[in-house]
Input
Amino acid sequence: MESKLATPSRPESIFSESPLAADQIHSAVTDVLTTTQFIDVHTHLFDPALGKLGLWGIDELLTYHYLEAELFRSSAITPERYWSLSKREQADAIWQALFIENTPLSEATRGIVVVLAAFGLPTDSSGLAEARAFFQAQPLRHHIDTVLAMAGLSSVVMTNDPLDPEEAPLWINGFERHPRFHAVLRLDRILRGWANNWELLAAQGYAVDRNATGKSVPELRRFLAEWCVRMEPVYMAVSLPYTFQFPQEDLTSKLLTEAVLPTCRDLNLPLSLMIGVRYQVNPRIRLAGDAMGRADLSSLENLCRDFPENRFLTSVLSRENQHELCVYARKFNNLMPFGCWWFLNNPSIVEEITRERIEMLGTSFIPQHSDARVLEQVLYKWRITRSIIARTLTNSYQQVINDGRAVTRKEIQRDVERLFRGNFETWTNGTADKG
Ligand code: RAT
Ligand code: ZN
Output
């Protein structure tokens, strides 16, 4: 719609260049999004020095749990039969069911097509031989650089579990860190499963007990502090169920209040809360068997209000919780909404959530993370995100022009940098991408 107002006024601030016309906005936004390097603030990727923890290549891409969930809807194979197959056979079964016998229309299947096409590999072949040969031929470190460059990422943030029996010894032995992989100290086993996991802390030499009594709290603080020295995390993180309540008479509240939050304050680290999972509604399909539920975000209100010296990066899984999350972010500047997580990472929902966040928070949030588990997933997840954000931002800038305010390319650049880098860098004290 044409503006009925006089020529938009231009603020005298940082920009001296000509304002963009409304019809130039889309290409300027697209160009800025394409040329700006993002930080991927939450993934399940691993520093190559962590060896086989890091997943990559066509068989891992096809056996992603998002696709496994879809396999059981389009194939008669039982989960038990599927789990008895080798990784390669599982990948073949998914390719057959979702890419040959059906058209890859869903978000997760489209992702495979985008990745194959990005490397010039066949997207409609009857088998995977060519794709397998291509990935097997890639030297990993070189491949990582290529993939991150193609995805427009300066760095990725990992998820690191200090109680994982495979991962922990690698950190304890030490390794040379890759400058583009930042660590995160993940607390799920501590905050959600203390009764099953306290012995793992004890085995690492900390004097803790099953009920977190006695020296347990100071010992947990010592554990967290020592692991922070070892990992240099950019934040600590936990995923929480939709039933999460805080404060409550339980171990999660106690350990959060007495150990995790004080350590975050001492070390000036944010805590990431990912709230809304209904764990294992269908254990037969394993990792694909988690669902979601609407959470009571008054717990978040209590945390943000009662711990003003803590910073909370927060993502909520239920679509119904998104508006409340924005309202809380308007009340508490120690709350940073981030990402459209898991079941929300679909174009229609990302567009809706991002628009809502811009309307309520301007550029004071982090629009997206990839949650990639397999390296090459960053290619499709960020490609799709960039195209949706381009539409959403274009729309917002065109409205601003229509309202009577000029917009310049430098300003778009500033906003995109804040959304996809600056907000995270500020919250992590500039420790991300310090190299
Ligand atoms: O999106 C996912 O892959 C989930 O399975 C979870 O890993 C979730 O992202 C999490 O970090 O807990
Ligand atoms: Zn995740």
Notes: The radius of gyration is 23 Å. The longest strand covers residues 271-278. The beta strands are 38-40, 153-157, 181-182, 184-186, 235-241, 271-278, 291-292, 312-316, 335-337.
